[in-house]
Amino acid sequence: MSAKPIKSILFVCLGNICRSPLAEGVLRAVLAERGLDRDILLDSAGTSDWEAGSAPDPRSISIAKRHGID
Fold first, then answer.
1. Contact 11, 20 (CB under 8 A)
2. DSSP bridge pairs for 8
3. Contact 63, 31 (CB under 8 A)
4. What is the mean pLDDT of residues 56-67?
5. Under DSSP, is residue 1 helix (H, G, I), strand (E, B) or coil?
6. DSSP structural state of residue 35
7. Could you read off the pLDDT of 40-57 as tens digits, one per residue?
8. 61-68: average pLDDT
């Protein structure tokens, strides 16, 4: 019996505090609604370390909350 291949998606932006985490959250919510959240691994990353260790951008948090995205 062969295992189902794991699929993964990596969202990338400059600092990983705004766009890529928000995109990850949106897709995570969509996959959960469709029962596919266990089939695909999601993550986000930044291309620089300027924001390493920084909290998510408050604007992204606000937008996510308005749309019910964690």
1. yes
2. 41
3. no
4. 93
5. coil
6. T
7. 999 999 999 888 888 889
8. 94
Going from the C-alpha of 47 to that of each of 12, 32, 33, 44, 63, the distances in angstroms are 7, 27, 30, 10, 23
In single-letter form, the type of residue at position 12 comes to V
Count of Cβ atoms closer than 10 Å to residue 51 Cβ: 16
The pTM score is: 0.83
Residue 35: Cβ-neighbour burial (10 angstroms; 0-12, 13-18, 19+): exposed
Tokens, residue 11: 């969202």
Domains, the chain, ranges and CATH?
A: 7-66 (3.40.50.2300)
Partner residues linked to 13 by β-bridges? 46
Tokens coding 17: 């505090």
Residue matched to tokens 């705004």:
18
pLDDT by residue (tens digit) across 5-41?
679 999 999 999 999 999 999 999 999 999 999 889 9
